[in-house]
Amino acid sequence: MKSEAQPRISNIIKDMPKACDYWRGLFKRLDDGELCRQMDVLREETARGVAAKKRLPRVFALAAEACRRVMGLVPYPVQYMAAAALADCEIAQMNTGEGKTLTSILPACFRALDGKGVHVITVNEYLARRDFEANSPVYALLGFSTGLSLSGMDVKEKQSAYACDITYSTATEAGFDWLRDGMATKREHRVQRGLYCAIVDEADSILLDEAVTPMILSGGGKGDDRDYRIADTLVKYLKKTVYDSLDDDERAIDEYPGDYVVDRRRRLTFLTSEGIRKAERYYRTENLFDIKNLKNYHFLLQALDAYGILERDVDYIVVEGKVLIVDRNTGRVMQGRRYSAGLHQAVEAREGLEIHQESRVLSSVTYQNYFMSYTYLSGMTGTAWQARRELSDTYGVRVRKIPPNRPCIRIDRPDRFFPNGEASLEALVQTVKAAHSNGRPVLVGTVDDRTSDEVSARLSDAGVPHRVLNARQNAEEADMIASAGMPGSVIVATNMAGRGTDIRLGGGDPDLAEKVKKLGGLLVVGARRQRSSRVDRQLAGRAGRQGDPGESVFFVSPDDDLIRLFGDGDASRRGVVKAQRRAEAEDANQRSSALETDTILQIHRQNLLKQRDRLLDSGASGKILREMINLLIDRMINDYPDPADGFSRFRVAYFRVFGIRSPSGSDSGRDNLNPSRDEDYPDAAAYEKSAVNALCALERKAPGAFDEISRAVLLQLVDEAWCDFLEGYEELKEGYRLMSSGKGKPYITLIQHSALMLDAANAYILEEGLRRVFRLKVEKDSQLLFD
Q1: DSSP label at 443?
Q2: DSSP-assigned letter for residue 407
Q3: Three-state DSSP class for 167?
Q4: Helices (H) and strands (E) in the chain — how many of each?
Q5: Are the CB atoms for 119 and 199 separated by under 8 Å?
Q6: How much of the chain, in percent, has pLDDT values that exceed 70?
Q7: What's the gap between Cα 536 and its chain centre?
């Protein structure tokens, strides 16, 4: 993040509109070529270190003038203010329809002057492509190059995109590009230049709602589908007992009814005493928890979660025989994501689908740790103020409220409360039907696909024509949402599907817009309250764009998940507030806990994978191999310090790695001892020299081939060690709270245990890497083969 020692640009934010208008008045007289040359002058000033405050108004004015010439649009004063906040690494809270896309052009130009690359991040590929195509001519006029990184592009296309001054992409694709770079076997296969500056659209969605979602790079399938089928068959016949919450339940495990218990609030499952007995009979074992049964127990736990926690059309959908994960926060399918640790296979077994092999995790990172890696981070959203403390603590960014260009006149009605879900849905349908009969456009927001389907069915029964936008119609979301302001339009949308797409009354047609305004503008109806009040405000904010009229109302009942799980069944305004605060606190705690464990992982990742960078950057691997020889011989001497046996264990270990008996070629350890020490020790220098001589012999016989293949061997080994470390760390992370004892802190315990694991991984790389390199045999045709 940006150092706090640097002067804050946004201290002059209130003066920015006036200063920018002054400079733009001067730049209007210049032709296009002179406009571009003025930006070149600012690029030179940036290289010389001229203060940002002196350059910022001129950069913004040039960008604004370019926007006028290319798009016919000039930023409003509030957009200049928001742009200054973004240039200063802040989150700008801007109302819906305030022109975030145009605003982002200004700070992108400012940071692009540094020449290190600016990443403009959107929530989906449609928006990334749309903004890239719309804004590229503006950047080109000012002498900036622009690129686009989307899924399906090859390495050369991505390298070209990231080599540009400004690159548009999605959070997911940029994150996976970074992960793939970390696993590249050659420097020329990497696509990103580094993580310098990111401007994130819908920042609260990406930085908070999706913060703990892991991006997982996987490969190398493993596992037997029979294990999942066997566990699935058992769970189908076990009796499930579901509780909304077990927070205050102090019963012992043998006091719970049924075979397994589900805690919906904590999303946890566990076997009861009766369930354990049934599982032991099923697997024909006396002790389910015996170490020899850990494999079966693991598959059983995944099956319990598949049946007890995950819900079809809520957590996932099934399309064309495939299980697709749905993000609960956005309602979108998480393309390319699969549940880890065998859970995805357990769901496939539950649904009776083909079970695909479990993939091995090659590398992973959460969204929050990925974006924390940027030097400069900023973003835009309509709802960030409530989470300003968490954003500051996690990312080191401040939130700044930007006033609307025009006052918001949307009417937010009080919640409507009903005795049960049936009555709530019936009232919702009648409200939509009444509005539709008058020609008023309606947007219905739901919490999941299941509710969308139910609302859709009831609207159909009531004779209300409508369209449904959920995880299954993700591809059409932009066009569908864009038409939500048309007279008579009724759209049912899961969560915030369509974010980033403007809803213009009448579709932008002045006559139709006036007609809709007379009807009261867009009516937003919330089928339920969300876990986060931020998401509710996002939904309500779809109405009332740029001073347009609009209205929002939410329907609530005791049957809603929020009220049952967090509000103690209190379907009142006070109950909603209490429930959302409890849910938000739990979500924030989850993000905080995930940040702790993932930060440790990323520190270890950087330490371990520095070896990859060095291998990729080094001209030859010989120097690295010599250092490894020195380190390994010292480690061997420390690991086998036993003169009583003539250091035979040391010599055996040395021979196992290097294939050399001793420096003199004899089996006598005494001939190779160093008498200068108080005790007899192997002569480390002699053993090292012998190994280095053998290495030189390999290098001389096939210098080019040996260097290339030995580097590939070491890179492969680093990747293997990292995969093993990841698997071990995941197991460690799941139970790290149980590892501490006495006054020890679980977090410290996790650090200590993972550090030991990393040390073991480094030791493995050192010894096994040299062993594999020294197994290479040089043939007469200068090719290298494994012995």
Answers
A1: E
A2: -
A3: strand
A4: 28, 25
A5: yes
A6: 88
A7: 23
Query: Is 635:628 a contact under the CB 8 Å cutoff?
Result: no
Contact call for residues 9 and 52 (beta carbons, < 8 A) = yes
Which residues make beta-bridge pairs with 17?
none
Tokens of 96: 């819906």
Return d(Cα 471, Cα 494) in angstroms, integer.
Answer: 8
- Which residues on neighbouring strands pair with residue 216, listed in sequence order? 364
Q: CA–CA separation, 742 vs 566, rounded Å?
A: 33
Alpha helix (H) residue ranges in 499-647: 510-518, 533-540, 561-566, 573-617, 622-639
At residue 551 the predicted structure's pLDDT band, cuts being 50, 70 and 90, is very high
Structural contact between residues 625 and 710, judged by C-beta atoms closer than 8 angstroms: yes
Q: Are strands 240-243 and 316-319 parallel, antiparallel or unpaired?
A: unpaired
Confidence band for 748, pLDDT divided at 50, 70 and 90? confident
CB 294 within 8 A of CB 335: no
Task: Give how far Cα 324 sits from Cα of 172, 312, 339, 344, 498, Å.
Answer: 16, 10, 10, 9, 19
Give the count of alpha carbons within 13 A of 551, CB side only.
Answer: 17
Q: Is residue 127 a contact partner of residue 478, using CB atoms and an 8 Å limit?
A: yes
Q: Name the residue with tokens 């020299």.
A: 689
Six-digit token string for 575 = 């109950």
User: Which three-class secondary structure state does DSSP give residue 679?
Assistant: coil
Q: What is the mean pLDDT of residues 595-603?
A: 84
Classify strands 268-271 and 550-556 as parallel, antiparallel or unpaired.
unpaired
Single-letter amino acid code for the residue at 241: T
- The stretch 264-293 carries a mean pLDDT of 87
Whether the CB-CB separation of 297 and 311 falls below 8 Å is answered with no
CA angle (4, 101, 329) in 5-degree steps? 80
Give the bridge partners for 119, in sequence order.
167, 198
Q: Specify the 3-state DSSP secondary structure of 109.
A: helix
Q: Are strands 550-556 and 411-412 parallel, antiparallel or unpaired?
A: parallel
b or e along 428-444 (b: 16 or more beta carbons within 10 Å of the residue's beta carbon)? bbebbbebbeeebbbbb
pLDDT of residue 213: 81
Q: What is the pLDDT of residues 121-144, one digit of tens each?
A: 998 888 899 999 999 999 999 999
Q: Is 422 exposed, middle or buried (0-12, 13-18, 19+ CB in 10 A)?
A: exposed
Nearest-angstrom CA–CA distance, 104 and 135:
10
Q: What is the dihedral of CA 181, 729, 601, 726, to 10 degrees?
A: 0
**Greater pLDDT, 332 or 535:** 535
Question: Which amino acid is located at 202 in the chain?
Answer: E
Distance CA(81)–CA(73), nearest Å, equals 16
What are 491-518's pLDDT values in tens digits? 998 865 556 567 888 887 889 989 999 9
The DSSP-derived string for 519-557 is TTSEEEEESS--SSHHHHHHHHTTSSGGG--EEEEEEE-
Nearest Cα to Cα of residue 757 among 656, 594, 653, 608 = 608
**267 pLDDT above the threshold of 90:** no
For a pLDDT cut of 90, what percent of the chain falls above it? 43
How many CA atoms lie less than 13 Å away from 87 in the CB half-sphere? 32
pLDDT tens digits, residue range 756-773? 888 888 888 888 889 888
Q: What DSSP string describes 2-45?
A: --TTSPPGGGGGGGHHHHHHHHHHHHTTS-HHHHHHHHHHHHHH
- How many Å is the Cα radius of gyration of the chain? 31
CA distance 715 to 769: 9
Contact criterion met (CB below 8 Å) for 658 and 774: yes
| Range in 47-61, 103-117, 328-342 with the lowest mean pLDDT | 328-342
Closest residue by Cα to residue 207 from 88, 107, 78, 121: 121
In the chain, the N- to C-terminal Cα span, in Å, equals: 49
Helix (H) or strand (E) holding 216: strand 214-222
